[in-house]
Amino acid sequence: MVTTGAAAATPEASKVDVVHRMLRREIEHGELAPGTPLSELSLVERTGASRTPVREALRRLAGEGLVDLVPRQGARVSRVSLQSVRDLFDFRALVEPAAVRQATEAVAGDPELRRAFAEMRGEFVRIERRAPSPARSREFYDLADRFDWAVIGATRNEHLRRTIAELRPHTTRLRNLSHVDPGRVDVSVAEHLVICDALLRGDADEAAARTAEHLALSVATIFGNLASGPGDALDL
């Protein structure tokens, strides 16, 4: 039997995907700190993949802005600058309120979608009532991530969906790098509830405005936490 080129490429391509997902998760969660060297040889030993898929996974991560490929030095986890933080949030402020506006309009005409957002609102309320703890913070950020992906999924514009989805790794990474103040969780839960309420009652203008406000407060917190934390992650 003749093997097609696409079929022959599948095992190698799947290894690229596995290495890419593993490294992206570790970078997002801060397990691989900014500036960490990424030796191809050590990654081959750690993942069991050959050099070719490891190299391709690193190229993908470089294309996503999570890895720097330095000539004659190899790959390193990219560092963070305060300007890059500002640029990211300025861009999010342009696109995410528009996405929430479209999601609000979608929820108004889709009972199943409305039920999904109503259930998440209930989860935000339950988290709001719990005492502060690391477990509560983790649960909130997992829920906030689900909420963001639900908004992305409800956005009718394909280009807008893709653009916001591509920003998610950077958003997650900044949250973990900034050593989030537990007190910020209370504020952020309240902000998400306000957005949920506006979305569920069909007030697209309010949902978009409260999303923009949430982003402005979030970047202020991240700036403060990054600037006061260890400097190894930053290019100031």
Write a short abstract of this structure:
The protein is built from 9 helices and 5 strands, in the order αβααβββααααααβ.
Describe what this molecule looks like in 3D.
It is a single chain. It contains nine helices and five strands; from the N terminus they run αβααβββααααααβ. It has 236 residues and is mainly α. It folds into two domains: 5-78, Orthogonal Bundle (Arc Repressor Mutant, subunit A); 81-235, Up-down Bundle (Four Helix Bundle (Hemerythrin (Met), subunit A)). The strands form two sheets. A three-stranded antiparallel beta sheet has the order 1-3-2. The chain is globular, with a radius of gyration of 20 Å. The model is unreliable at 1-9 (pLDDT under 50).
First-to-last CA distance: 59 Å
What integer is the average pLDDT? 88
Count up the domains. Answer: 2
CATH-defined fold name of the largest domain: Four Helix Bundle (Hemerythrin (Met), subunit A)
Q: In the CATH hierarchy, what is the class of the largest domain?
A: Mainly Alpha
Unreliable runs: 1-9
What is the β-strand count?
5
H/E order of the elements?
Answer: HEHHEEEHHHHHHE
The CATH superfamily of the largest domain bears the name GntR ligand-binding domain-like
Classify the beta-strand content into a percent band: 5-15%
Quaternary structure of the protein = single chain
Task: Assign the CATH architecture of the largest domain.
Answer: Up-down Bundle
Largest sheet: 3 strands, antiparallel
Strand order of the largest sheet: 1-3-2
Shape: globular
